[in-house]
Write a sequence for this structure.
């Protein structure tokens, strides 16, 4: 019995030492960042920027892989089922990943159990936009016009946050516009320009870039408060759409079983990156304020977001797909 106990203890200690050694030497190979949207999308732009910055900290190549499909869920499932060793990470908005549990009748994974937040990156909001040639200068002007158009009005969406923002706007304003779903926000621009679609709920990367070129007009954003990077853009709530507070936040997400020391290292590196002025300027240009948090606070937010999005979907009366 003593021999068995001694052998068992040696095995346990051996496993523990191996895990500890692996964590301490992380990384020993290339790292993969997975995003759920195609090259050139807002998600892809942010992922590739963060990947390059992360490379300088890890001293390893960081490969970006675009796993497109099911509003990001293909990427979510891939990472959730990956080996939990820190070499496969998901870069998406933690809010939309949490929402996926409630958007689909059969979500690919139990998100809070299968994934954990390693580090937060930025806070952002989705934008209500119209073409620059549109006659609508405010949310109220657009709302009044859309109510007159009734079901002949239409709007564009692509990502989950935009889908929910669109439905919440209709539920809170009484507008009956028809949703038109695109693969990416950029794919909707021609339809907006020709007037086939009246307005859109777009990710801030596309909205801000097109606004800077004079092609789109931003009417408001979905968060509850204004952002430091663009205090001139009002909230939907300020424009009479009371009850809307959809604040997205980007994160590095890993499989739930990833060792704590590796998660802590990823968090520390990302927080160092977020303190760089160049990074804060980039995040501002792409629609967000830098968001530094601990591993524990990031996970608490992840869990609470799932509950919040369940309520948003109920208010918006969105049926599970």
């Amino acid at each position: 019995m003593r021999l068995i106990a001694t052998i068992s203890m040696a095995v346990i200690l051996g496993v523990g030492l191996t895990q500890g050694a692996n964590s301490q030497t992380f990384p020993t190979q290339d790292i993969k960042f997975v995003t759920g949207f195609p090259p050139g999308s807002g998600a892809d732009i942010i992922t590739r920027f963060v990947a390059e910055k992360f490379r300088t900290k890890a001293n390893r190549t960081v490969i970006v892989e675009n796993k497109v499909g099911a509003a990001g869920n293909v990427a979510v499932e891939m990472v959730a089922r990956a080996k939990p060793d820190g070499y496969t990470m998901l870069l998406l908005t933690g809010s939309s990943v949490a929402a996926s549990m409630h958007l689909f009748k059969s979500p690919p994974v139990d998100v809070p159990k299968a994934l954990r937040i390693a580090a937060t990156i930025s806070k952002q909001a989705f934008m209500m936009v119209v073409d620059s040639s549109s006659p609508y200068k405010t949310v109220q002007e657009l709302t009044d016009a859309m109510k007159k158009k009734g079901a002949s009005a239409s709007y564009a969406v692509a990502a989950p946050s935009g889908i929910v923002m669109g439905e919440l706007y209709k539920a809170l304003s009484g507008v009956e516009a028809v949703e038109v779903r695109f693969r990416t926000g950029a794919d909707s621009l021609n339809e907006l320009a020709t007037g086939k679609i009246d307005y859109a709920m777009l990710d801030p990367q596309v909205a801000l870039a097109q606004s800077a070129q004079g092609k789109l007009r931003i009417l408001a954003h979905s968060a509850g408060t204004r952002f430091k990077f663009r205090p001139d853009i009002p909230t939907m709530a300020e424009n009479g759409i009371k009850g809307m507070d959809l604040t997205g936040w980007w994160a590095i997400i890993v499989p739930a079983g990833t060792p704590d020391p590796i998660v802590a290292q990823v968090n520390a590196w990302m927080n160092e990156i977020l303190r760089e002025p160049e990074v804060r300027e980039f995040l501002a240009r792409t629609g967000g304020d830098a968001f530094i948090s601990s591993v524990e606070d990031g996970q608490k937010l992840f869990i609470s977001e799932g509950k919040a999005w369940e309520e948003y979907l109920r208010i918006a009366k969105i049926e599970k797909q």
User: Anything to note?
Assistant: The longest strand covers residues 115-124. Residues 1-21 have pLDDT under 50 and may be disordered. The chain is about 45% helix and 20% strand. The first helix runs from residue 2 to 25.
